[in-house]
Amino acid sequence: MQYDKWKSSVAGACLLGLMSGASVYANELNILADLDLSGPTADIGKEIEQGIKLAEEQFNANGGLVIDGTKYKVNVIYNDNKGDAAKSGQKTLQEIMKHKVVAVLPSFDEDKSIQAARVSQSLKTPLIATWTAASEVIAGRSFAFKVLGDYKAEANAMKKFAKEKFNASKIAVIYNEKDTYSLEAAKAIKDSFEEEYGEDAVISFISFSSQSEIEAKIGELSNDAEFLYVPLDQYETPMVVSSVRRNGWKKPIAGTSYWVGGNLAKCGKDCANSYITGFFAAKGVKGAMSKFVADYKAKYNSTPSEPAASGYDAFNVVANGLRKLSSIDTAKVQAVRNDLQKAIASMEYEGATGRTKYSGESGEPKKCVVVSQINSAGELTFAENVCL
Predict the structure, then answer these.
(1) Residues 37 and 132 in one domain
(2) Considering the domain boundaries, does residue 340 fall inside one?
(3) Are residue 195 and residue 172 in the same domain, yes or no?
(4) Which end of the chain is more exposed for a tag (fewer CB within 10 A), N or C?
(5) 292 shares its domain with 202
(6) Of 173, 372, 169, 171, nearest to 272 (Cα)?
(7) Is residue 365 a part of any domain in this protein?
(8) Whole-structure pTM value
(9) Alpha-carbon gap, residue 100 to 18, rounded angstroms
(10) Distances from the Cα of 61 to the Cα of 54, 65, 151, angstroms
(11) pLDDT in tens, 32-90
């Protein structure tokens, strides 16, 4: 029933777009950014927005889009989904039709990204996911791409790093079973360690479903583990890590890029010297990453985060894809979308989150994983690139 309603809404929106006479001006192309710009996760949405705006500004300053002697204006249309997944999908549908959008940059949230990807695939419009590791966003969708790697890549990288850095082969995991990202990341690290070291490699696999359970659950942590993995978000991480330290845990602690969507400074010395896997670090980096950090600081007078870097790269994937096209007819927007999808599918791009390479068979990029160390100010410093 819900699927039938959704199909009807797609058909209705298509008809509305035709009847309204909505059109793109000559030599103008639109990109939709559907972001959390208000609501509980607006801080992350605004970081992604700032990354996109920096990339857009640089794109235009560097000549914009010129194909066969014709210059095209590329606009980014921002939609505030207010943190509502259901409205996000519907609004994405409406905006694609209304503005003849050639590409979509969705929210970081997995549910909203999947909603947007479903709509984009139905309308054969390329979607480049920003700050998400969830492969479900692109699964079975030829028009959907990601700029970051997946849970498995981060888990395998952390396993390799933990062995080399701490000689650790026995792990403990604390995760939130109600949080899809946390659950999937916990499963990925568990599978990775058990595949390498056997079923006894995971000493404690501790889940909680509410903050009131945390203190009691931490009592289950076994000191036989050599390493603690905490794939929690930036709000829960300080609470759990501080509690673990108060309970006497002195061994290494690590997490994922899920830690970095906010300010970890409040975790202070408890999180200091911990490690996370991800695809970006603001300190100690070189090349394209370093240039992005410098440019972002110059524009916003603040240090960029991984969400900002993912927004920057998502826009540039679209921009580079458009620049690869041999011709563009803005009156034939579906042909532009189809050509753009093909251009992105075989792209290799060096940006703020490192090298992004698509195989032509999947929107899952081939990327190295960045391992970063956290200092007492909550800042991430590059420690190692793990390429598997």
Answers:
(1) yes
(2) yes
(3) yes
(4) N
(5) no
(6) 372
(7) no
(8) 0.89
(9) 11
(10) 11, 10, 36
(11) 999 999 988 899 999 999 999 999 999 999 999 999 899 999 999 999 998 887 777 88
Question: Taking phi first (over 0 means left), then psi (-120 to 50 degrees means alpha), and beta for anything else, what does residue 253 get?
Answer: beta
Residue 111: CB atoms within 10 A of its CB come to 17
As a whole number of angstroms, the distance between CA 86 and CA 376 comes to 39
> Cα 120 to chain center, whole Å?
17
> Are 107 and 157 members of one domain?
no
Residue 205, C-beta contacts closer than 8 angstroms, at least 6 positions apart: 172, 173, 186, 190
Are residues 113 and 23 both part of a single domain?
yes
Helix 110-122 to helix 85-99 angle, to the nearest 10 degrees?
30
DSSP sequence for 318-361: HHHHHHT-S---TT-HHHHHHHHHHHHHT-EEEETTEEEE--SS
- Residue 364 within any structural domain of the chain: no
pLDDT tens-digit map of 126-174: 999 999 988 999 999 999 999 999 999 999 999 999 999 999 999 999 9
Residues 46 and 121 in one domain: yes
* Helix, strand, coil content of the chain in percent (nearest 5): 45, 20, 35
Number of domains the chain is built from: 2
CATH number at residue 178: 3.40.50.2300
- Per-residue burial over 248-280, b if 16 or more Cβ lie within 10 Å, else e, is ebeebbbbbbbbbbbebeebeebbeebbbbbbb
Rounded Cα distance, 267 and 241, in Å: 8
Domain of residue 231 covers: 151-278+371-386
Whether 122 and 351 have beta carbons less than 8 Å apart is answered as no
**365 contacts 357 by C-beta, under 8 angstroms:** yes
